[in-house]
Amino acid sequence: MKRVALYLLISIFGAALVYTVMPAHAADPPNLILNPSVETTTSTGTPQNWTQSKWGTNTTTLQYKTTEGHTGNHSLYISMTARTDGDAEWIHDAVAVQPNTQYTYTSWYKSSISTEIDLQYTDKTGKVTYAYVNSVAPSANWQALTTTFVTPANVAKVSVMHIVAAPGWLQTDDFSLTGPVATTPPPVDQNNLILNNSFETANGTVPASWNKSSWGTNNAQFTYESTGRTGTKSAKVTIGTYTSGDAKWYAEPAKVTQGKSYSYQDYYKSSVVTRVVAAFIDANNVYTYQELATAPISNTNWAPYNATFTAPASAVKATVFHLIDKVGNLTLDDVSLSAATTTPPSPIPTNPVIPNASLETASGTQPANWQKNNWGTNSPTFQYVNEGHTGTKSVKITMANYVDGDAKWYFDPITSLQPGSQYHFTTWYKTNVTPHAVAMFIMSDGSEQYFGMPIPQPSGSTTQWQQYSDTFSVPAGAVSSSVFLYISQNGWLQTDDYSLAAYTPTGFNRALLTMTFDDGHEDNATTALPILNQYNLKTTQCYATTFIEGQSQQVIDGVLAFKNSGHEICSHTVTHPYLTSLAPSDLTYELQHSKQYLVSLTGQPISNFASPYGDYNTTVNNEIKKYYRSHRTTDEGYNSKDNFAPYSLRVQNILSTTTAEDVAAWIAKAQATKTWLILVYHRIGDNPGEFDSTQAMFQKHVQKIVASGIVVKTTDAALDEIMPQVP
Known about the structure:
The protein is mostly beta strands.
């Protein structure tokens, strides 16, 4: 079953905020797509240089609209009303492209559903292949879409396709496909001790003044790349198999002064967390090393790395190794090593400033630095209220005619939050419903990401202000952020006095990982279980008993196969309902009967519970406490000693797009903070839905888990270890 609550978070903005970061360049590159605004029409009334495409069993109409466009009067429209399989798309004439080259695609779109961008490649032999790029969230209003991709070897032509593969509609206009922008390398820094710092000067097939080195048991491959952050060159190292050692490109050692401080900087892309080490050489050519801070994952965007170190008393030369010591890849460009300046770097703000945090400053009839937004089918009223928790102002939303979507006030996204850091958010609110809390991040490519925080638990009073307080993590690549409460049902919500502060969790004795599986998909006994048994990993399997009780013996045998292999069995209700919508007797039945049935089936205690869709409130939690030791939600985050709440356990949700590198980064965060990481899986199998994983990707996830060395326990075993540590 799909977790609808998470889907709502992913698609939370009907009118999305788009922030675009454009690199400096000498001249705009030409648009390769002909008739990019589809304004030119053929004699038969179709858009010139464009064709319709549809396959599979579905009911789809493709239209050339002639009275509405993002610009001009024309646009392309697809409406799918029923689908068994297949998809539909408008396709522009294939354009010639260069192999191993990065291209940027942009367009404007509106849609009622999630769609996706795919590529149709034609190679030099005429063979056609396809590649998935990314999914695209729905938007009720025209929104800009920007994405990049790197062409494969032997490619000759490409068409970019915006695809509909589910019932709903998509409208597109103003298309662009451009090649790499001609950039000018930065001026030579006379203080930079690294020669050929942008890799632009070649020495045969390698960059001049650079060395490559690997040791240990791994199959490192070094490449001198033709795409750089600036100029046209960069240096890449890839490890495909790894047992021990590391690999790195490094600059020729430079002379340094003993006791003097130096600043190191590079720009990098990496699929894994990488290490940085300062290497010092004494007069006898003996090396010593100083470990610097690690560099987080940055899969698609060039990320800056900065560190400062002091040359030891014996050093006469130094270089810096930005290295990789696991399966993955690392690319470097624009490297700098120079004497440190006397001006200290700006510190990370302890208390980032929210603009107009108490809403006291007005801009006309609205609060300054605040925005209002809603999407879906509903009728909200937004008010700037002359009453506050402190001062005389606050903001209020009153929702009526609710069918779907949500509404919220939110402060203008701020740029002072640091990627990879954690923050503590508070606000004061009054309400007559249960609101939700979300952290929103604008990424460097203009897309949005959302972090679902624990659901506020209103006291029941509609007249008393109460505080909401919780934490979130800023993802790599985020350039600005906002945090807000939203309302998604008929009722009202009033908020005031927002604040943010840097947050460091209080860890347990060690990091722990728990893998949980929801619903009871029959596939998992034949797809996931063999992989888990291969690595001797024990999980928590959470079953909605309607998928088991009264079903075939094969289904029941699948449950018993997990139980007999030492996995924990957990309750996930009977019928997988929204628990907050149930009458008291129905809530009791869902919690009680599922436990009774699972106990009778497995012959063992059923101690823990996972709520469908992550839907809960105070009433639901109080009832859960009568039957279970814990409640696992779908609220995102890490469980630490200072925020530990056994009836609101936090997780990281696995989607079909979750990579092995994402899992590795979550594990690295848990290990660094000694927190408890819980992963939520659903079905493992072919043709994955939004919340499922392929068997191949799941295998990669498991390999990352095993390679990390993190301790893996079931929910019950983890609670046995953690509970004695909590005051």
